[in-house]
Amino acid sequence: MYFMDEKYSALFTPWKIGNVEIKNRIVQCSMGGTSLFGWLEPCHFDKEAANFLLNRAQDGVGLVLPGMQCVRDTMGRRWLWQNKKMFKELADYMVEYHKTGSKLFIQLAAGFGRSMAVAPWMVTLNNNKVLGALAKPVIDVSYCCASA
C-alpha cells in the first residue's frame, strides 16, 4: 500500500480548461518523438508515438500534449486535413484512449517559425535557385524557415 504526503494531494484533484474537465493535474508535456501525425515526413498516424502516449494515459496522466503538429507537411507540402486515412486511424485510437479518462490536446502549428534550426544545406537550397526549385516538391526551405 502506498501513502501519499498530504502536500501533494492537490495534484490529484480535477480541474478545467474551458468546459473540459481533466481528472488530475498531472500533465505529460510535449516532447520530440511524440507527434501523432509524424514529423519531418509526410503526415501519417504514428503508431509508435500513439502507443507511448496511450501508455502515459493508462498510467494515470490527466492531460497529454503530443509533440507539435504542422498543419502542412514539411516534406511533400500536403495539408494535414487531406489525409483521410490518418484521421480514421486517429478516431479508432481515440476510442481506446478515452477509456483511460485522460484528455489529449493536439497542438497545431503553422510551421517551424523561430524554433527551426537552419542547417547549412538549407542555406544552400535557399541561395541556389536551381537546387531550391529541384528540392521544392520534397522540401520547401523558404516555407520551413519563413520566420527563422
TrEMBL record:
Gene3D superfamilies, per database record: Aldolase class I (3.20.20.70)
Domain NADH:flavin oxidoreductase/NADH oxidase N-terminal, first and last residues per copy: 11-111
Pfam family, one: Oxidored_FMN
Stretches that traverse the bilayer: none
A GO MF label: oxidoreductase activity
InterPro entries named in the record: Aldolase_TIM, OxRdtase_FMN_N
Protein's name according to its UniProt entry: 2-enoate reductase
Organism: human gut metagenome
Lineage per the UniProt record: unclassified sequences, metagenomes, organismal metagenomes
